[in-house]
Amino acid sequence: MAKEEQLEGSDVVFDLISFLNSSPTAFHAVDEAKKLLKKAGFVQVSERDNWNLEVGKRYFFTRNYSTIVAFAIGKKYVPGNGCYIIGAHTDNPCLKLKPISKVTKGGYLEVGVQTYGGGWCPNLWRRNVQDGFKVNTHGHLVPVLATTIKAELNKVVARNGPVDSEDDKEKSNKITNTDDSRHHSILLQLLATQLGCEPDGISDFELQACDTQPSTIAGAMKEFIFSGRLDNLCMSFCSLKAWPYKLPFLVRDQLVTPRIPPV
Fold first, then answer.
1. Who is most buried in 63, 101, 156, 261, counting CB within 10 A?
2. Is residue 56's pLDDT more than 50?
């Protein structure tokens, strides 16, 4: 192998390692993808706005901070032409907090987790983990339900059936609908400290455990990459890395060329 090819290959490997270490969750992976796309000349657009797209230009948008869609429009593109698509997903098998995570055993406060996407968990038990999360605060909530539907969803159901009286409803709310009944108060306080808000300002969150052991290159000939999240951040990275090399050809042709890292 030529020296130039070895150097190029090494650069790609180290870029992959950096991408993996910077992407413990799908939210981080999308943020890293945004940086790479902007560096390659892509312009971010919003689904809430009217788009004024131009041929020969490159664009991307995100959804829920965990999905990203990028596309380039050929200079000779006309409506009706075909397109090339690359798809991958930014999430990965992991442990996520349960909707009701509060557990107390033997005098210890514990956090209940559940598997997401399968995975070989015994390997994870032997490693340290960190937290990766996305939190919704009350200020971000927008009412979208019709009044009649909301009324049905807001009906309080006690453990033994529907609650009719206001007194019973208030008691049931204290038992089943408070954040303190679903999660330990210390957990909510830790999240609030990180976010710079009060615990009562957190309406919901998505929290997962992340492997703290960094990705690394190993093997007698440095031929292996040891890392978590290879399913499927490896394909997301390859798509991000390889696709721009095709852009000089694609932008000249008659195709619109979308790229969709997550599913």
1. 261
2. yes
| CA pair distance 235, 40, nearest whole angstrom | 18
Helix (H) or strand (E) holding 151: helix 147-153
Please name the residue that has the structure tokens 């008659």.
254
Strands, sheet with 202-211, edge to edge from the N-terminal-most edge strand: 108-116, 94-105, 202-211, 129-137
Q: Tens digit of pLDDT for each residue in 141-174? A: 344 444 444 444 454 433 334 444 455 445 444 4
Q: Cβ atoms within 10 A of the Cβ of 256, count?
A: 19
d(CA 237, CA 78): 30
Q: And the tokens for 262?
A: 């997550």
Encode 72-103: b = buried (16+ Cβ within 10 Å), e = exposed.
Answer: bbbeebeeeeeeeebebbbbbbbbbbeeebbe
Kindly state the tokens that stand for 196. Answer: 């710079």
Q: Are 135 and 195 in contact (CB under 8 A)?
A: yes
What is the chain's percent helix, strand, coil content, to nearest 5?
Answer: 40, 30, 35
In contact, 215 and 17? CB cutoff 8 Å: yes
The answer to whether residues 20 and 2 touch, using CB atoms and an 8 Å cutoff, is no
